[in-house]
Amino acid sequence: MRRANIIKLVTLVLLVAAAVALSIKPLVDPVKGILLGLDLRGGVHLVLQAEPNKNGTPITNDDMDKAKAIISKRVNDLGVSEPIVQTDYDKKRMVIDLAGVTDPDKAVDILKTTAKLTFRDPQGNVVLEGDELKDAKGDQGQNQGYVVNLTFSSDGAKKFGDLTTKYIGQKIGIYLDDKLLTNPTVNTPILNGQAEITGYETLDDAANNAVLMRSGSLPVSMSIAEKRQVGASLGIDSLHRSINAGLYGLIFIFLFMLVFYRLPGVVADFSLIVYGLIVLWVFWMFRVVLTLPGIAGFILSIGMAVDFNIIIYERVKEEVRAGKSLRAGVEAGFSRAFITVIDAHVTTFIAAMTLYYFGSGSIRGFALTLGVGIIASLFTAITFTRFVLRLIVGISAKIKTTWFGVRREV
Amino acid sequence: MEKGHPATYDEVKKIHPLYFNIVKKRYWWFGISILLIIPGIISLFMQGLNLGIDFKGGTMLDVAFQKAVTQTAITDTMKSVGLDGSVQLSNENTSALIRTEALEEAKRNELLTALQTKVGDYNKETLKEDKVGPAMGQELTRNAFLALGIAMGLMIAYISFRFQFVFAISAIIALLHDVLVVVGLFSLFRWQIDASFVAAILTIFGYSINDTVIIFDRIRENEAKMRRTDSYEDMVDKSVWQTMRRSVNTVITVLIALFSVYILGGESTKVFSLAMIIGVFCGAYSSIFIASQILVEIKRHMKNPRKGGKAVRA
Fold first, then answer.
1. Average predicted confidence (pLDDT) for chain A
2. What is the mean pLDDT of chain B?
3. Assigned fold of B58-131
4. Cβ of A311 and B246 within 8 Å?
């Protein structure tokens, strides 16, 4: 009994140590590790508000979808690793998070342009507007390579017919704002409104170009309702500061528990490590983006996670003082403390959930880490802490109660 | 092994070297809290809160210049592009925190270029910018009140379900007490608040009620074991002292965590951690000295009239 417990304990310690050692690398991996928010590595957070149409027609969800498609396309062109583009249909808003973007100024510049598709003659004069284009699709060419098929409205077909007649043998440029998308040469006059642009290397190229032509201009005009921009080195600085804060907080909490609760204090510190690992892996698994308030929430949740241990130990002390054996005391303490902790944590959880539901941006990150922390601390306590405590009190019936901080003088 | 008996009131008194009767002195605690809250409330009515751009809308630029700069140089530059606002220098006059109206992109770029040419080179890598449109600010305020209201409703429901309605009311009064102290102090000292302040207040909500529930849980347990001759006051006093160690130790660990964030965590989490430190401290205080005592007070008033108005002597 006694030896078996000691072996189990030692194995457990080694297992946790191994888990910590093996976790560090995958968790902090810059690509596959825990995602860092833009406040920790620089970037821009934008909230774009769709302005009501001037003629009074309401903005439809379809408009928002189109706008999102266009903005997503532009965002992807920026080469940001994991951009976030979300639409809020109720409030007609779009939230864009570009973490780690190298030149935030340029990014904002590209996003806010109300891209407009135009056809221009060889001299660069606008000869046809993008709204005359009904559809554009990427497809396989008849001979070889890939093509974009254009379909014009009846009005556009007539204009395009005139154009292609006039500029036969010359180039008509297709522009998105001032950016040249493609510059095809007119081979024959196109009078039926069905044009084909040839010469794409891959289907993807053709399809991408088609998307831009099709959805060229934003269907609604957007204004920047909120913008938060953080320089890259400022973000890294914040990250280091928060890690520092977390580290010192942890060390002092460890010491406090050790001095105050002795043997169970060690168990508590040990449980805290397991707790921290669980939370971080949950973040990793669900691709939770860690933000500055998120880290603050995590550090705070460490402080609260210890609470469970404190409640249990105080209860165990009481039971032992009342004359129970350590073993009986641990069992009784646990089952009684569990009810207490459930009630207390549910109420805190209510607050975290309301915060998550009503909060925006950074507040949500905080609420999420707090919520995950509460569940993880409950889980750690009822599985890990209890298991370890049982092992310890099972080692010997004569284990000193003073190790549990109990003076049996009453 | 002898079968233990639950600790008696006298035993509980003996274990704690600093024991004093908390319940008997409850009017003192009420008085202290009122003294704490009233200046804050007056300040709230007189000068309100120092709202940051998250609430009012506006643009805030945190610019780190290569060399020391002067306040007037920046204000003059702002005026030259037609802008008003406040400038706050720090870090040996190399960092400037500029607050002004919500700027359009064009205006913002104009200002930054002007700063570059007229005031001096700044580090683009550490530039921090926050722009909040006025509509967004109003929404934040509205959502904050909504969130507080709903959280409060849910908590009352949960505590009434698990305990009694009286417990829920006492807990909520203690909660409001904590929030008033924090908000009052922020108003009194004109500390500027941002969106994270809302998060802090709601977390204080969650934390303070957590603290209260732990004590109430003990009261609930002891109440069930009460004998006819026991007084409610003594039972509550015993419960408060039985959970005293836990209350104190937990508040210490949470404060350790918060102080490390406050001291080491950098500028942007300062408001949050300061509000939390005050709130957590208050929450621990109010759970012991306010929530439990209000419970005693309500229970006493509930009992007396029911017994036909006759004076009851134990």
1. 83
2. 88
3. Alpha-Beta Plaits (3.30.70)
4. yes
| Amino acid sitting at position A14 | L
CA distance B289 to B30: 8
In chain A, domain spans: 2-37+231-404, 43-114+221-229, 117-214
- Which residues does B255 contact at the CB level (< 8 Å), separation at least 6? A303, B277, B280, B281
Q: Which residues of A touch B132 (CB under 8 A)?
A: 225-226
What's the predicted TM-score (pTM) here? 0.81
- For B91, which DSSP code? T
Sheet with A179-182: strands ordered across: A126-129, A117-120, A173-176, A179-182
Each residue's pLDDT tens digit, A154-186: 888 888 888 888 888 888 888 877 778 788 888
Give the ipTM of the model, two decimals please.
Answer: 0.85
SS (H, E, C) chain A: CHHHHHHHHHHHHHHHHHHHHHHHHHHHCCCCCCEECHHHHCEEEEEEEECCCCCCCCCCHHHHHHHHHHHHHHHHHCCCCCCEEEEECCCCEEEEEEECCCCHHHHHHHHHCCCCEEEECCCCCEEEEHHHEEEEEEEECCCCCEEEEEEECHHHHHHHHHHHHHCCCCECEEEECCEEEECCECCCCCCCCEEEEEEECCHHHHHHHHHHHHCCCCCCCEEEEEEEEECHHHHHHHHHHHHHHHHHHHHHHHHHHHHHHHHHHHHHHHHHHHHHHHHHHHHHHCCCEECHHHHHHHHHHHHHHHHHHHHHHHHHHHHHHCCCCHHHHHHHHHHHHHHHHHHHHHHHHHHHHHHHHHCCHHHHHHHHHHHHHHHHHHHHHHHHHHHHHHHHHHHCCCCCHHHHCCCCCC
- Single-letter code of the amino acid located at B51: L
Question: What is residue B3's predicted lDDT score, i.e. its pLDDT?
Answer: 45
Does CATH number 3.90.79.10 belong to domain A117-214?
Answer: no
Strand (E) or helix (H) holding B131: strand B128-132
Task: Tell if the CB–CB gap between B123 and A231 is shorter than 8 Å.
Answer: yes
CB atoms within 10 A of CB B154: 17
Does 1.20.1640.10 match the CATH number of domain B9-52+135-306?
yes
One-letter identity of residue B130: D
The crossing angle, in degrees rounded to 10, of helices B165-188 and B26-47 is: 50
pLDDT at position B311 over 70: no
Query: B125 and A231: CB-CB below 8 Å?
Result: yes
Query: What is the distance in angstroms between the CA of the first residue and the CA of the last residue of chain A?
Result: 31
Q: What is the pLDDT of residue A406?
A: 64
Q: What is the pLDDT of residue B161?
A: 93
Q: What's the CATH number of domain A2-37+231-404, 1.10.10.10, 3.40.190.10, 3.10.20.90, 1.20.1640.10?
A: 1.20.1640.10
Domain range A43-114+221-229, CATH architecture: 2-Layer Sandwich (3.30)
Residue type, A195: A
Contact B7 A232 (CB under 8 A): no
From A198's Cα to the closest Cα of chain B, the distance in A is 39
Nearest to A225 among B136, B264, B272 (CB): B136
Please report the pLDDT score of residue B1 as a whole number: 37
Distance of CA A395 to the CA centre of its chain: 45
Q: Locate the chain A residue with the closest alpha carbon to B16.
A: A410
